[in-house]
Design brief:
One of its GO terms (molecular function) is nucleotide binding. The protein has 355 residues and is α/β, with parallel strands linked by helices. It is 34% helix and 25% strand. The protein has a 9-stranded mixed sheet. It has a 6-stranded parallel sheet with strand order 3-2-1-4-5-6, with helices on both faces. It starts with a strand and ends in an 8-residue tail after the last strand. It binds nicotinamide-adenine-dinucleotide.
């Protein structure tokens, strides 16, 4: 593939994961990064190597380095301003999830993306994990028959500390169901090729962060939730999130049940499992190259997403993950939060809007 130059804005944990994965894609040449935090600049500058220019101001970086593509991995609350600023330069954009912290800001960015003259991509990368990609492929080839039920369960450790502790407050993140569960809602839409029409959720911050204080404030982020969704296709779906299930690892289980049987995928085991009503069951371990697994915490998703992004950039085709997908996942997360606040189900129209 042809070479293109890349820059990263926000060189914290996720920025470094992008640095490590770009290093596995020689045709995607990282030339610059920008971060206002001296610690992040030092750490990430070292990881990126001496050929990569390091800036504290991303506007200066854009003017000086003129990258073909920019990866925005700054905190959620900053996406609205950073994307708006960067769009003035016309470079291809990959903005980390969530698109924004509010439906209003996400709508603004999705509108901007519609008339953007270059590639605009939202980093909802779960579908790129090889076991999930296999699961989706089998599902979309019709193995299960029409899907009646879908369930996604994440059991994991609490939110990690972030630079400046931005992820402790919903005003900075969009709330847990936007911040992290946008991934899972996008995956549901993609798996089912349908959009939700009704959502009921219950959740709270019951175990983690209760004794933490930041400038005298206690965090307000959910650490567990159930979200039940009705899809336009007639499929019922459920998300179970628990962030105090263990202290070290992340365990994800996705399954769908159709008229012909049950298809499951488990992460990190990387096993896709088919349990039919009739016929032979099978189970397959999906391998991911070791260097790809080692380049991040997302089971290879960051690498395969960047490869697809680069292909779209070079070929001039549209995004696999569009700003509209980003907007939908923010709307679903926000609707789930609304349901928790009111104790009532929330109905969504065909655009995902709700009152
Ligand atoms: N794709 C995924 O699965 C995934 C995983 C983790 C994080 N993320 C997303 O990546 C983004 C960054 O998260 P993180 O975990 O790396 O956080 P982090 O706190 O580790 O890093 C964020 C970095 O951005 C810098 N920053 C702050 N304000 C900035 C600004 N205005 N312009 C440029 N840089 C700025 C900070 O100094 C910090 O170095 C978030 O949007 C997060 O939701 C995505």
């Amino acid at each position: 593939m042809e070479t293109r130059t890349y820059a990263i804005i926000g060189a914290g944990m996720m920025g470094r994961e992008h640095i490590a994965n770009l290093a596995l894609l020689p045709e995607a040449k990282l030339i610059a990064l920008a971060d206002p935090d001296a610690g992040s600049r030092k750490w990430s500058g070292k990881a990126a190597g001496e050929d990569v220019r390091v800036f504290s101001d991303y506007m200066e970086m854009m003017r000086e380095a003129k990258p073909d593509a920019v990866i925005i991995a700054s905190p959620n609350f900053s996406h609205i301003d950073v994307v708006t600023d960067i769009a003035k330069f016309g470079a291809a954009i990959l903005v980390e999830k969530p698109l924004a912290t509010t439906v209003k800001d996400a709508r603004f960015l999705a509108q901007l993306a519609k008339s953007y003259p270059n590639l605009f991509w939202i980093g909802l990368e779960y579908r790129y994990m090889p076991p999930i990609a296999k699961f989706i492929d089998v599902l979309h080839h019709g193995l299960t028959g029409p899907v009646k039920m879908l369930s996604f369960r994440e059991h994991r450790f609490p939110f990690l500390p972030k630079v400046g502790d931005w992820n402790r407050f919903s005003e900075n993140t969009g709330g847990t169901l936007v911040e992290k569960c946008c991934h899972f809602f996008d995956l549901m839409r993609y798996a089912l090729q349908s959009d939700p029409i009704r959502i009921y959720a219950t959740g709270g911050m019951d175990v983690n962060h209760l004794t933490e204080r930041y400038d005298g404030r206690t965090p307000d982020i959910l650490d567990n939730a159930y979200v039940v969704l009705d899809f336009a296709s007639g499929t019922r779906a459920m998300l179970e999130l628990c962030m105090f299930a263990n202290l070290t690892h992340q365990e994800e289980r996705l399954h769908v049940v159709g008229t012909e049987g049950r298809l499951s995928v488990s992460i990190p085991e990387a096993i896709v499992d088919w349990s039919p009503l009739r016929g032979e069951p099978w189970s397959e371990k999906i391998e991911t190259p070791k260097d790809v697994l080692a380049a991040g915490d997302h089971h290879g998703a960051t690498y395969f997403q960047l490869r697809d992004f680069h292909d779209a950039l070079v070929s001039g085709r549209g995004p696999t993950l569009s700003a509209q997908d980003g907007l939908w996942s923010v709307k679903i997360g926000a609707a789930a939060h609304r349901s928790i606040e009111t104790g009532l189900p929330v109905s969504l129209d065909e655009n995902g809007d709700f009152t």
